Amino acid sequence: MPKYSNIVMTGGISVFFSSEKKSNVFYEYFKEFYENKNSYKGQDLNKVLTEICKEKEITDEEIQRLVKEKPNQVSAEFSMLNGLKEKELLDDKFSVSIIHSDTPDGIMAALINKKVIELIFEGSTVFMAEVEDVDVSNEVKLQRSLGNFMQVVAKELLKGSKETTFFAPIGGYKYMTYLGYVAGALFGYPSGYMYEKDQKLLVVPPIPIEINFDLIAKNKNFIANLLKAGQLSYQELSEAEKEVVDTMPYFFEKIVVDGQEIVSPNAFAQFIFEDYINTTIKVSTEVKELINKNEQYKNFIHNQLMELIKKVKLYFKNYREYQGLKGELQHNETWGINKPYIYKGVSNGSKFVFRCAYDFDNINSVLSIYKIWLKHDEYEDDCEKIAKGKKMIDMDKNKLVEIDIEEE
User: Where does the CRISPR system ring nuclease SSO1393-like domain lie (predicted)?
Assistant: First the structure.
């Protein structure tokens, strides 16, 4: 198995766990904080943590002693990492992203875990990614909050490759486990769970997810308006728009308010469409003909382009943070090719592969696709010729056309 260098987990508050039979080792130290957590809203919790550690004499030496004595009674997050370490699955240097709620106890639990992990695990660096608490009283705000959570998960996962990233949706609210798995599966990341009693590592493979982007592309303006407005009257939609809502119920919520049927995008729609809707895709004539060759090609290519958009937006905005994507997004360097960029997408064995020559304008959010390969032997042959100067890719952007149009 590979060594993991990018660990992503949803963080909960198990560090504060206590029961009649046993309590986690830091419970007594933070009991007063936990019982009065709501009074700490708006405070600098980093400062609060420092003050509690000073008052309770929680020194680095004391932390090391407590963890050494009861390593299985620290937190679920710590147990996960400890299990990976015992199985020699952690790289010498690795990062941990803890995705936590913005509640006082959620933040403090993440801060405690950060302090403990960086102290105990040599070579570790912990990052905290905050997501807003869900507002269940407002359906539109709820779906936007859940969609934002999925965006955060994707951003943290995409900092590393699929081979070196371990995703553990183990803590936090139950929705974090469910939606976290979906966000990870969309990009091909498996999810992991450590069965603490026997330190048994369980890995859940990602379920292949394919979306009808042809229908989405033809109704791009409607989707964009719905995302912006948050909700629209179902009765006022056109027949084509109603078809989108009715044939893809996994993207939309339909509720009745004051006798009127209202449609709103759910968390999955917020996550999937935000970048896709706000990006212009331009392709060469050759690529457009390939996309329209048959329905199977069209949907496969649209799904791959959606994944590419997510990745390039993160990478070209902050390439230092997303170095894990470089091998996929600048695969041209493997061939010794300077430009265009080559994206190494999915490989489906005997069915299709996806490779494309592209460029991305991060300022104007324009993705330019010059060529797409669906057969690996053709891709390799062309890249060898390009590298030797025997073949050129036409990168004249004036010849490109948009593909997200009604006539497609």
Answer: 73-207
Determine the residue type at 326.
K
Q: Are residues 330 and 181 in the same domain?
A: no
Strand partners, 175: none
Calculate Rg over the CA atoms of the chain: 24
For the chain, count helices (H), then strands (E).
15, 14
**Exposed/middle/buried for 208, CB within 10 Å: 0-12, 13-18, 19+?**
exposed
Tell me which of 204, 232, 253 is where a domain ends: 204
Each residue's pLDDT tens digit, 274-321? 888 889 999 999 999 998 887 778 888 988 998 899 999 999 998 888
Q: What is the pLDDT of residues 184-193, one digit of tens each?
A: 888 888 888 7
Residues 247 and 190 in one domain: no
Report yes or no: 124 and 114 within 8 Å, Cβ to Cβ. no
Decide if 407 is inside a domain: no
Residue 350 lies inside a defined structural domain of this protein: yes
Residue 111 has φ and ψ, to the nearest 5°, of -65, -40
Low-confidence ranges of the chain (pLDDT < 70): 1, 133-140, 194-199, 348-350, 404-408
Number of domains in the chain: 3
Q: 165 and 16, same structural domain?
A: yes
Closest CA to 323 of 95, 129, 154, 159: 159
Cβ-Cβ contacts under 8 Å for 374 (sequence gap 6 or more): 290, 297, 300, 352, 353, 354
